[in-house]
Structure formats: structure tokens, C-alpha cells
Structures
1.
Amino acid sequence: GIQVEQSPPDLILQEGANSTLRCNFSDSVNNLQWFHQNPWGQLINLFYIPSGTKQNGRLSATTVATERYSLLYISSSQTTDSGVYFCAVKDYGQNFVFGPGTRLSVLP
Amino acid sequence: GAGVSQSPRYKVAKRGQDVALRCDPISGHVSLFWYQQALGQGPEFLTYFQNEAQLDKSGLPSDRFFAERPEGSVSTLKIQRTQQEDSAVYLCASSLSAEQYFGPGTRLTVT
């Protein structure tokens, strides 16, 4: 099945810093989502982005489907950005495969 | 409108007990998914429904796991004869088209 890798596994930032999280996948996908899992365990939708670029406030994402990667950019990070960021992809079936996540800690 | 809801939020079961976990999807969402998330890992797919039909149950770890969605709305994930390795967070997601929306999860602890 499709494999998903995320890097870095852990990231520590000072408040106000910018960061880039990466997701690599092993095969063609027709669905890619980025999620933020907050400290209470809730998975929050950030982007549905099978291709192209989207922006939402301080966050933006780019997926280059032909090269099998996606990037999540966080600018001017805040302590509330802390948590785990997951990339999840789906091939042409219905099975959604999650990466192992990037654990982000933003220090005040 | 309301998001995906799950109940109970926390469940402690003694080894060997049966448990039932409930998921209320977003109204009108045709697709419903169950995932299992072990501590420190990403969610893993268990099973998928389109309306009342269970189209994929390839992720269910054993025949002790059973899911149903009899009227195409609320779904129940049942685990029989729970074992310690079943301890995890069970997440439900629903979808109208491509994007999935997740509930808060049920944290199951088997003692």
C-alpha cells in the first residue's frame, strides 16, 4: 500500500518563528489533507489539498502531486500552534493513510 | 452545523469485557470511517461505510472487532472480549465528498 513519511519528526520553535513541515508519499494520490491534533486529541482540518497551493491566515500548504510531496508552512508561530501535525493521503480507493506526524512545540 | 460526535469520550474496560463505541456523523454525510490511534502514532484505518453498506473492513485487527451502521447514519464499533492491546483512541470521521471531518475520539483503556 501507499507509504507516507513526514519530516521532521519533532520541531521546537520560539514564538514568532516560521517553519516548514514536509510530507512525502510513495504513489499517486487523489486526496491529501493536513490536520492539526491539539493536546486534547481533536483532529482539526487545516487543508484539503490534493494539488496546488492554499493559504489560510498564517498557514499555507503546497502539494506537488507529480513529485509526491506536500509542504505545510507555519508563519509567525504561536504557542497555540503546538501539537502534532499529520498529513493523510488517499489513493484511488477509500483507505486514508496517515503519516507518523510532526510534533511541534512552540515556546513562549 | 454540529460536527462529528462520539460517545463515550472515555471508557475503561476490564480485560474480557465487551464494549460499544458510538459515532454520530455530520448530518447528510454519506461516508463514515473508523480509525484506531495508538499512543504516539498516527491514526490507522479500520473500516469504511457508504450509507449503511460496509464497503471496506480490511483494517479491523481481528474478528473481535465489529462495526455497523444499520440506518446509514449513526455507527457503532463493537469490540468483544477486550484485550490490553485494544487500548487506544478510536476516531470516527465522516465525509460528504472527499474531505474527512473527525470526531473527538473515544479513549479506551483495557485493564
2.
Amino acid sequence: SAVISQKPSRDICQRGTSLTIQCQVDSQVTMMFWYRQQPGQSLTLIATANQGSEATYESGFVIDKFPISRPNLTFSTLTVSNMSPEDSSIYLCSVRIAQGYNSPLHFGNGTRLTVT
Amino acid sequence: AQSVAQPEDQVNVAEGNPLTVKCTYSVSGNPYLFWYVQYPNRGLQFLLKYITGDNLVKGSYGFEAEFNKSQTSFHLKKPSALVSDSALYFCAVSSLNNAGNMLTFGGGTRLMVKP
């Protein structure tokens, strides 16, 4: 497995501001993903972070709201822009270490965001 | 489209008793099935997976899961529950037919093991 470090672990932010979340992996990985877990809910995929190109966003998520960077194979950032209370969630970075559709995802500990 | 259902929001069991957390799925093609556990203030931890082969798969912490193709189920089980097993459990599915190979998660089941 890999060690996945997310920063910050939690934050309280004011409406209208932006927060950038960092995800660092201790080994090179091909695929990195960002998930959102709203209070009491399951995980929803925001986007796939592609190294060297624009992220691939899922339906309902747009680059202007959730810009993502992936400068190399071990690091990615997710920015939550112009935040509103509805953005209060846990944001999770995940990676697939092994190639193939049947390999599991591994997750960071998440960033718990509260927007006031 | 693929989907996962976890019909129970919460499962309560006494320590030492067997536990079952239910999961049913819907995919086109052969499924790849996963169970994850989430402890408070932590990310998800991978428990076990079914890809092919034996219907009973064994995973971490004494957990196992049984794949039943006819019932499209993948229930998580443990013969003897521990208080430390109390956590949130997620079932997830993927398949070769799923473009981009994304995992779809169920809604989660909170397991409460009482001493």
C-alpha cells in the first residue's frame, strides 16, 4: 500500500473564500482521485486528477468551482472556490497503486471542511 | 449505470456474536466488488475484494464476504464481532464495462458493537 498524506486535516472557512487541499503520496501512482463525502452521506467522485493535463470532472462538478492540479505522479491539489455552507464536507484524496480495474483504491484521512 | 445498495443504515450486534452487513449491486458485465471501513476522522480503509474465483473471500481483521451472483449480493460477515469493529462500512462496485473504471459506493452502514 501507499502512505497518503492530506493537508489540512480540517479547516473552518468563511463564505466566499477558497481553500486548497494538498495530497502527497509516498510513491508514484498513475491514478489519483478526489472524492467528496457530505455529512452522513456516501462518497461522490469529484474528478480524476491527470498528470500533465486537465482533470476529468464528473457530472455536477466543474473546474471553476473545483480546480485541480497534478504536477507530478506523487502530488495533487484540490481547491474549493468561492465556498458556501453547502460545500461543508469531507474531501478525500485517493489513489490506485496497481494497474487494472480490479485493484482497490487507497484513501487519505480526508480534509473536514466547515464553511460558515 | 452501476449502483450499490446497502439496505441498513445501522446494524447493532453484541460483542462475540456474528455480524452481517448487507450489500447488493447492479452492473452490466462481471462485477468487481469491494468493502471499505471508515473509522471516525479517518479515510476509508480497504478490507477485501472479489474479482473472480471462490465466492467466499477473506480480508483484513477477520472479515469475510460472500459473493452471490444469482442474488447480486456481496454481504460482509464476521464470525465474532469486537467492540473495535464499530465503524462505518462501505460496499463498492466496479466493472470492465464501466468507462473510466470508477468505483460506485453504497450509502454506508454504521456498525455498532456493544459490549
